Amino acid sequence: MSEYGLLIDYEYCTNCHSCEVACEETHDFPPEARGIRVFEDGPFEYADGKWNWNYIPVPSDRCDLCARRVMNHQQPACVHHCLAQVMQFGRIDDLVEEFKKKPRQVLWMPN
Predict the structure, then answer these.
(1) Does the model's pTM come out above 0.70?
(2) How far is CA 20 from its chain centroid?
(3) Entry's Gene3D superfamilies (predicted)?
(4) Distance CA 36, CA 41 (A)
(5) Domain 4-108: top CATH class
(6) Do residues 35 and 62 touch, judged by C-beta distance below 8 A?
(7) Do residues 78 and 15 lie in contact, with contact meaning Cβ atoms separated by under 8 Å?
(8) In whole angstroms, what is the distance from residue 72 CA to residue 97 CA?
(9) Averaged in consecutive runs of 10 residues, what is the pLDDT profile of the chain (111 residues)?
């Protein structure tokens, strides 16, 4: 699975926590041992008076990209259940090309 990763467009994450819940349910993790967690960045004000407030889903070292689901030709649980559809799963090379197109994204690759 090392050639695969997640591209997360955090600009549109709504902080619904669906990715966290889906991960917990899929892997039977306790809440304190999630494979992904949503972090809050902000709110803060820019010098021009505009405000910024982002939610950023961040996979942990427990994330295996739902290897069992992927072997069954399914998306990782976090990607499948993301209500805002801000997560993409795919080959690193393909995700890098998408990453170059738009700022405010995070490209995550497992160890």
Answers:
(1) yes
(2) 10
(3) 3.30.70.20
(4) 16
(5) alpha beta
(6) yes
(7) no
(8) 26
(9) 88 94 91 89 93 92 94 97 96 93 87 76
